[in-house]
Amino acid sequence: MSQHLSNGYLAQLATEFGTPLYVYHAEKIKEQYAKLTTAFRNSNTVFFYACKALTNINILKYICSIGANVDCSSINEVKLALHAGFPSSRILYTSNGIAFSEIEEAVELGVIINVDSLSNLEKFGVKYGHSYPVGLRLRPNIMAGGNLKISTGHDKSKFGIPVDQIDRILELVSKYNIRISDLHIHTGSEIKDVEVFVKGIEVLFGLIPHFKHLEFIDLGGGFKVPYKDGDVSTDIDLLAEKVNESFAEHAIPGGKPLQVWFEPGKFLVSECGYLITQVNVMKETASTTFVSVNSGFNHLIRPMFYDSYHHIVNISNPEGAEKKYAVVGNICETDTFAWDRPLNEVREGDFLAFYNAGAYGFEMSSNFNSRYKPAEVLVLDGKAHLIRKRDQFEDLLRNQIEVL
Ligand SMILES: *Cc1c(COP(=O)(O)O)cnc(C)c1O
Fold it and tell me: Is the CB of residue 163 less than 8 Å from the CB of residue 141?
């Protein structure tokens, strides 16, 4: 793990902006992006930031400024990306069970589109024929990813058109003369083994000869990042090597080189983020010492939802003697962040920082228990900017219509 904001600096931000607080470190995003572009410098590869991981508009603007493209999961994300300054040619909308009306909107906005069902492919053909290029989100029937909840390419997954339905796809493509510009697969998240991507390429190469207007192969996202010391991450250099090898081994029909796309979410923003909380209460029980912080799964749901591990640091007492604690939240629902976790001695009032909080952190937060969503701060060029105000009481009533 590299380029971390120091404990002292994080504690200073907690004091200045209050807690709970999300902090993002811009230069860390840049460092991650550079790892990708460096590894793939000798190949024709483009990276689309899967922005559902973190959509604060300042993050989108920053990512636009460092040169990455953007991958969206909803038409609103497409609109946010346009608002952030991405030209439509750098915006990809990968659909998943969406209404055809959103695809029509995406066409009007001029962005790149991947469709993920035969039904929408047919509607697309009827309406646009050959006039607007479109990509196919395919389900490769490959098992991959950190756990079942984050696996999306296997043969029971809802995502994509199963590759075994290729005959139906080809019927529609030919009937409406649809211009298929890319083939897309996204097999899951936290993929350690680069062979998964190679397997994906193998599946796609079997299909490529059927599509004569193809320009791009989109291998999705899912690169793993380290969550704790000793954790393996996706070996990006090895991935680049394997992908290049794979492409070198397969002759492309017509000889036209295909550009390779990836859609990293977590890889770009996970490590840039910290959630800083404050200890409300210490509770000693016969078996456990509980640390209750002023947060919960309403702010960071990953531990409860995915059983994910987040490194926690007592930034107020980093030299304190280590003890084991259960770190829990303050909402009325089990919201354990960590069991049996060694931390430097914790006292009421201490600030605890949760690492890897950039991806799927704030983005999956809610107002459960009628608590406020945290504020967000962006550290850029050594300067801290408030980029989202903490909710206020009025926010809880906003959009409610009082009829009684
Ligand atoms: C979520 C998603 C990604 C990003 O996944 P990460 O694990 O965050 O890299 C990429 N592509 C698509 C289509 C997605 O839905």
Answer: yes
> Does the beta carbon of 71 lie inside 6 Å of ligand 1?
yes
221 lines ligand 1 (CB under 6 A): yes
The string of pLDDT tens digits covering residues 252-303 is 777 778 999 999 999 999 999 999 999 999 999 999 999 999 999 999 999 9
Q: Is CATH 2.40.37.10 the right assignment for the domain spanning 273-393?
A: yes
Query: Does 273-393 match 26-269 at the fold level?
Result: no
Q: What architecture is the 26-269 domain classified under in CATH?
A: Alpha-Beta Barrel (3.20)
Position of tokens 């904001």?
Answer: 5
Q: How close is the Cα of 267 to the center of ligand 1, in Å? A: 10
What's the pTM? 0.96
Say yes or no to pLDDT of 141 above 90. no
Looking at ligand 1, which atom is closest to the CA of residue 359?
Answer: 8
222: left (phi over 0), alpha (psi -120 to 50) or beta: left
**Across all residues in the chain, what is the average pLDDT?**
95
Query: Is the separation of the CB atoms in 369 and 13 below 8 Å?
Result: no
Q: Which band of pLDDT confidence, cut at 50, 70 and 90, is reported for residue 2?
A: low
Length of the chain: 404
Mutate-to-test residue for ligand 1 from 36, 52, 185, highest number of ligand atoms within 8 A of CB: 52
Mutate to test the pocket of ligand 1, among 36, 69, 113, 189 (most ligand atoms within 8 A of CB): 189
The upper half-sphere exposure of residue 382, i.e. CA atoms within 13 Å in the direction of its Cβ, equals 0
**Nearest 5°: CA angle at 81, between 75 and 83?**
105
Answer whether 265 contacts ligand 1 (Cβ < 6 A): yes
Rounded to an integer, the average pLDDT of 190-206 is 90
Residue nearest ligand 1's atom 1 by CA = 50
Q: Where along the chain do its domains lie?
A: 26-269, 273-393
201: CA distance to ligand 1 center in Å?
17
Please give the pLDDT value at position 70. Answer: 98
